[in-house]
Design a protein that fits this description.
Blueprint: H1 2-24, H2 31-55, H3 69-79, H4 84-103, H5 109-131, H6 139-142, H7 156-172, H8 178-196, E1 201-202, H9 207-219, H10 228-231, E2 233-237, E3 245-249, E4 273-274, H11 285-292, H12 296-306, E5 315-320, E6 323-328, H13 330-341, H14 345-371
Antiparallel strand pairs: 1-4, 2-3, 5-6
Helix pairs in contact: 1-2, 2-3, 2-4, 2-5, 3-4, 3-13, 4-5, 4-8, 7-8, 8-9, 11-12, 12-13, 12-14
């Protein structure tokens, strides 16, 4: 297991190194594609290294292709290895890579730098959190130059505001500049999707949807009403840190309103999302028991002792067809493993037996009352 983890981790560092080299090179040829492709790949491999170290598998149950980056994001969030802000950074980079490679989106120099710098910070933090290592511990990276730019962004609001003004200017010019405007707008829409919910699989916006968003931006005096998710993000700089730039969600900003299909305004929504929640809530009780190395009864007892069914981050009920299915998250698995390691299985079994005894007594008492 250790060898597989080491190989995945080394691949991730090599891809990250190449991404920074491409960013810093003077040639503009395929620069954006080269940075984002390798940066996204570096995160996918690092995420898989963390998951493999914990589970010994990076494939879905039943085999097949290994987990996608989005699936890995959900697993790591469930494991408690990524914060929401960190998930937004990774999802934004993945979204930018997909939209550039498959839809011809355009990314400004400032936003490409933001991807590279915040991605480097996240990579270093996760590497340290999961493996107690730093990038500087690796010879291939210890002397690597950081992403270099003449115009580092100072604030997320000003960066997005500049992008919006550029898009408005292109839309207001001759018709042949509209394609250029929509290519830039596509990047903002993808960023908006990641800011709203980094764990949901995005549906790339169609040209018609981009046109509608463009018209709204031209009419609206305040772009934050059109792109509320981006409006909630800000930049933080940690003085003295080797990799200092991080993206965070402002706690004071107004929440994003979710518009469901069929509701008023759904056709103008900036983010078109496809829900894949079962990738996050991926365990039935028997799966939880198998992964934690306990029996189904012990898993049930530990879940009761820990109150997992009352924890919205650990348990959720899904309606599939006409049946209800209770599923647990990676957080639930982690809590059960910790309780097992702490020697609480017998305590859990005793608590569950007592709970069932009380339930039987109450049921019998209810029958006697009904008969009387």
């Amino acid at each position: 297991m250790k060898r597989r983890t080491r190989l995945l981790k080394q691949t991730s560092i090599e891809s990250l190194t190449l991404s920074i080299e491409v960013f810093n090179r003077p040639s503009p040829t395929a620069r954006t594609q080269g940075v984002l492709l390798n940066l996204q790949h570096s995160f996918e491999m690092l995420f898989k290294a963390v998951i493999w170290e914990d589970r010994g598998s990076i494939e879905p149950k039943g085999g097949g292709n290994s987990h996608s980056l989005r699936t890995c994001l959900g697993i790591l969030r469930g494991m408690g290895q990524l914060s929401e802000d960190e998930a937004i950074v990774a999802a934004t980079i993945a979204g930018h890579r997909d939209s550039v490679q498959h839809q011809g989106a355009a990314v400004t120099e400032e936003r490409l730098y933001l991807d590279a710098a915040s991605g480097l910070r996240l990579f270093d933090d996760l590497l340290h959190r999961s493996f107690d290592e730093r990038l500087a511990d690796h010879p291939d990276f210890s002397s690597r130059m950081l992403p270099v730019t003449a115009k580092p962004p100072q604030e997320m609001y000003l960066l997005t505001d500049g992008d919006v003004q550029q898009i408005r200017g292109l839309l207001g010019s001759k018709r042949h500049r509209h394609a250029e405007a929509l290519a830039l707008l596509r990047t903002l829409v993808v960023s908006e999707q990641a800011a709203e919910d980094p764990l949901r699989e995005p549906t790339p916006p169609t040209d018609g949807q981009l046109q509608r968003v463009a018209r709204r931006l031209q009419k609206a005096k305040d772009w934050t009403k059109v792109l509320p998710g981006l409006a909630r993000l800000s930049l933080e700089q940690d003085e003295g840190a080797t990799y200092s730039l991080r993206i965070v969600k402002s706690k004071d900003a107004a929440p994003v309103r979710v518009v469901r299909p069929g509701e008023d305004g759904a056709e103008d929504a900036v983010s078109i999302l496809k829900v894949a929640e079962t990738e996050h809530w991926c365990y039935y009780l028997k799966d939880l028991a198998s992964q934690a190395g306990v029996t189904s009864y012990e898993a049930q007892a530990l879940a009761f002792l820990l109150g997992l069914k009352d924890d919205p981050e650990s348990y959720r009920v899904f309606e599939m067809g006409k049946q209800l299915h209770g599923r647990y998250s990676g957080r639930a698995l982690r809590l059960i493993r910790e309780a097992k390691a702490a020697g609480r299985i017998e305590e859990a079994k005793a608590a569950l037996r007592e709970h069932r005894r009380v339930q039987r007594q109450e049921k019998n008492a209810a029958k006697v009352t009904a008969a009387a």
